[in-house]
Design a protein that fits this description.
By secondary structure, the chain is mostly helical. It is built from 21 helices and no strands. Helix 5 crosses helix 12. The mean pLDDT is 84.
Length: 426
């Protein structure tokens, strides 16, 4: 039997037995090493160490900490108030506010789960109070939070860049076009739904108040500066993505403690505790997934898969469609970062062999897996949004399917119109 097939079978058996993904990868790798003596076990241990011995990986805990600080430090509330002064007199205004603030928060936290928790925690109850369908409110918050892994900075992009060996700065730049496209698409769907169901404006009286806009802007400016500091510093060549994450943490903490005064020692310890738990998972997964990919490469698995696919078709369009199907299904069952680590070493060489830019492929992967955040059975965004809306996850699916259709259309445009992704990079 093919060694690669045996490793895959071992991995799938572990997954179905309920073994965590990260340990399933490690067990499968060691089975391959012990059974087929590909490399000494000492080599495997060295690769595990090398997987976490990376300056770039230092960005991970700091971006996670930024998201935690902003969730607790009062910045999300100010962003919502600011957005309300802009969209408040428009039909379906709370929907626009949800998408708009999710886009801004995505440019701060880089995480879909953090975005739906912070923004959805404010906007879902507000929409329900204004007589929006609570299932629509939950579905909109969950779907808008898919912007978290796409609009830079993005934690999945950091992990993809490390795994694929490509520039994280270029990945961040490439995410701007797809992020704007998805933001506009979600707003257009909210426009159509609001017109059909007569969702009322949040502010029904008075004219647009420029003075109120200025006041709310001044209140929110400290939070709005975070993505400007992060992205401006990176693109201006002032600091690397890792250094940008550190600067964003310091700034977010300064704003939360000294300006908004909503961060105390107890809340800060809570932020650190959540960050340590998530970072530990990410770093262990990064090391083991790198070793897993190295074992597969030594066994020739990527070349075998590439040969099997190209023997069926050499069409770039068909291969990209096939990859989209694979990644979409993976997103339904796997956690985003786990899927990035598993599929990057398998699919990227094939994509490059048919002329797909690795930066472009990274965005295709990230968008697919972001959609996976709102697809059952795993769908972390759906799970959080259903709790916020006080309803069952299944009840959200009717509305969520409409958003998924829109997001898939966006995905097809991103896949087959590379300029949407690469025009800023080049």
């Amino acid at each position: 039997m093919n060694p690669g097939l045996i490793i895959f079978i071992v991995f799938m058996v572990c997954v179905f037995l309920g073994v965590p993904i990260v340990f399933s990868l490690g067990i499968a790798s060691m089975v391959g090493i012990v059974a087929f003596e590909i490399v000494p076990m000492s080599y495997y241990i060295q690769v595990l160490y090398a997987g976490s011995d990376s300056f770039t990986l230092l960005a991970v805990p700091f971006f996670i900490l930024v998201g935690e600080i902003l969730c607790i430090g009062g910045i999300a509330e100010r962003l919502v108030s600011f957005a309300n002064t802009i969209f408040g007199r428009t039909s379906g205004s709370l929907g626009y506010i949800t998408v708009f603030v999710c886009a801004i928060f995505a440019a701060i936290s880089g995480s879909g789960v953090a975005t739906v928790a912070a923004v959805g925690g404010i906007m879902v109850p507000a929409m329900i109070r204004e007589k929006y369908d609570k299932n629509y409110a939950g579905a909109l918050a969950a779907s808008s939070a898919t912007l978290g892994p796409i609009i830079p900075p993005s934690l999945p992009m950091v992990m993809y860049g490390i795994t694929a060996g490509v520039s994280i700065t270029k990945l961040f730049t490439a995410g701007i076009g797809p992020g704007l496209l998805m933001t506009l698409s979600l707003m257009l769907l909210n426009f159509a739904v609001s017109k059909k169901h007569h969702f009322q404006p949040a502010k029904r009286e008075g004219k647009f108040d420029w003075r109120a806009l200025g006041k709310e802007f001044l209140s929110a400016i400290w939070g709005l500066l975070v993505p400007i500091i992060i992205l401006g510093g990176i693109y201006g060549g002032i600091f690397t993505p890792t250094e940008a994450a550190v600067v964003a943490c310091v700034w977010g903490l300064f704003v939360s403690v000294f300006i908004y005064r909503e961060m105390d020692l107890k809340k800060f310890i809570q932020c650190l505790n959540n960050t340590v738990k998530t970072t530990g998972m990410c770093l262990i997964m990064a090391s083991i997934a790198l070793a897993f990919g190295r074992v597969l490469t030594l066994m020739g698995v990527p070349n075998a898969i590439a040969g099997a696919i190209t023997s069926i078709t050499s069409s770039r369009i068909v291969i990209l469609l096939l990859f989209n199907v694979i990644l979409f299904i993976a997103g339904m069952f796997l956690e985003t970062l786990a899927a990035v680590f598993i599929f990057t070493p398998l699919l990227l060489p094939i994509a490059q062999s048919v002329g797909v830019d690795p930066i472009h492929f990274g965005l295709i992967m990230c968008v697919n897996l972001a959609i996976g955040l709102v697809t059952p059975p795993v769908g972390l965004n759906l799970f959080i949004a259903s709790k916020l809306a006080d309803t069952k996850m299944e009840a959200l699916l009717g509305w969520v399917m409409k958003f998924i259709v829109i997001l898939i259309i966006d995905l097809m445009l991103i896949t087959f119109v590379p300029q949407l992704t690469l025009f800023l990079v080049s």
